[in-house]
Amino acid sequence: MCVPQVQRSRNKQMREMFPDGFGIHHAGMLRQDRTLMENMFSRGYLKVLVCTATLAWGVNLPAHAVIIKGTNIYDAKRGALVDLGILDVMQIFGRAGRPQFDKYGEGTIITTHDKLSYYLTLLTQQNPIESQFQQSLADNLNAE
């Protein structure tokens, strides 16, 4: 399979992986390449899109299966790696099995053995959702 837009890209990895149905998406790519990967995935040309959590959080790209590889993310406020929160995990898993596209979806989380029971417990028990809006109310109002 050869789509001309992909073959014209300067991104060598993207051009090499595309014929096999694989795509990549991260902030270091040119915006036009990221948009192209999003379009190719949504149109079914790509069967696998490897991306950063930012794409899974913010872009509406439904998938049949979602895999979270690693549960540590960098927190700039703390200046350190922190555990991925359960709401973030649920948001990312929410990309899998959208009713209008699939009958069911699959979510897989790959983490260290010592955190396995932690995430399993969080995923199988209901958690209260609490707003964090008030903590940054002044910033939000100033932004408006």
Automatic annotation (TrEMBL):
InterPro entries: Hel308_SKI2-like (IPR050474), Helicase_C-like (IPR001650), P-loop_NTPase (IPR027417). Gene3D superfamilies: P-loop containing nucleotide triphosphate hydrolases. It comes from the Eukaryota. Pfam families: Helicase_C. It comes from Cirrhinus mrigala (Mrigala). This is Helicase C-terminal domain-containing protein. Residues 1-144 form the Helicase C-terminal domain. Keywords: ATP-binding, Helicase, Hydrolase, Nucleotide-binding. The keyword DNA repair does not apply. One of its GO terms (molecular function) is ATP binding. The keyword Ubl conjugation does not apply.
